[in-house]
Specification:
Chain lengths: 112, 422
Amino acid sequence: MKDEKSKLLKIMNELVRFFLKSGNHHVNIQMDLDEHEGVILLEGCCTKISDKQIKELDNIINSPRKDEAEEYYWNLIGSNDFSELHLLGALVNDGEVGYEGDNLRIKVRRKF
Amino acid sequence: MDNELLKSLELSEKIKYRIMYLYSLAFILSAFLFNSLDIIIYGIYKIVISPTLLLTDYIVVGGIGASLLNSGILMLLTIFIARKNDTLMNGPLIAAIFTVGGFAFFGKNIFNIQGILLGVYIFSRIQKDHFTKYIIIAFFGTALSPLVSQVSFGMGLSPLSGVILGIATGVLIGLILPPLASSFVRFHQGFNLYNIGFTAGIIGMIFMSVFRLTGYDHTLNQIISTETNIPLLILLIFYFLSMVLVGLFSSKNGFIEYPNLLKNPGRLVTDFVSLHGFSTSILNMGVLGLLGIIIVLILKGPINGPIIGGIFTLVGFGAFGKHPANTLPVMIGVVFSAVLLGLSLSSTGLLLTVLFATTLAPISGHYGYLAGILAGFLHLSLVSNLSSLHGGMNLYNNGFSGGFVAAFLVPLFESYKKEKDL
């Protein structure tokens, strides 16, 4: 439980990386946490995001959480030189992706 | 294949578990084709009381029947523990089961893994967390089982105090392994598939340093069978062929999805079961098993305990990052270097390096064939220098070496890339 805040930070880093990779230079981040769960919301405008990427991200963050390998890999996420976006789904319970106009909005939730 | 279609074709957890149970039972039953019950029981006893340092071939120590039974029981135990903890039968778990089963031919046994598993369990309770979160670390963490056996039976202690101290050492390892494993993965950035091997190497090195400081030291074992038992070879061929058949016929996606699996670079954490389905993964595992046997036979090596361990690890990671396209360059790199250096290609030591060097498969998967060949060369150079550091007490010595090779190569490759990916 004591690593929960560190895990949320890494999830946030990975999502910020996704925004930067999509050509975005302005991201608003909101993080809410209580004793049961943490919710991260990122909003910003993008220039290079395709429908396929949106669908892939939606699939990833809504794939089943995988507790069994969590302690094995969570330190890889959001910390090194490589995108670990595919691992996000294993760490978060669910999420939403919205793209309207130039505005990309990603929300993920992790239960503790 | 479309994500939704893949999901709809996936086998249920119940069936996946049944298939895995069958593979462990196959070894248990096969044991009795080779030896009678009394010989097997005596063989298991000999296996349990051996210090099990690298390299201790259980086929020499306890016979083929006892080795098969030991392997089958350990696989059955890991599957049972995983099921009881509601763990999904995915890539990391399958890799762990087959790695435990493989090393049950040269280092792991029913006695020396228990303390480590218990230690990781206690760690999860201390953290007030589910054991499931640490189960993969617990299974792979049995890499340090020889440390338990060495303290129990190899340090000249009385049998009772030796066993108690050995189990206590195992529990201690289990208590320190999870935070270290989680931290060290950053060192090689996921390019060394045997991450626990690297962690276990560091732990083994620390323990061995303390032992040596107190005046205790030991030499490495070289108890190796040099003969190939033909019935055992045939059993293994059927075992891996059955995986290919299960992969092809258990689901429609098995064969169709395989070309997509072969495109993965394989870096940690690439769970083939989640990405491509159980059937495709088991097909890949069977192909890798047969490939491993073919390579050993081409190089005129024996199919002994350690070699079976190497092939089984290759097979297990066929669900968790390895496939022919990313493993072959690294293996070729080791063989090519050995030819240049005039080393014997048929020696067990070299063949183990060929098989276990595939821990660096993600390097060839990510940076290309030439990078994989270079990684194989560096791995061969480094691996033989490291086992004395941990006194042969870390069974995944190649994972220890692979961690250093990956940490050395990856930043260099990244620096000289034309464009840096985010």
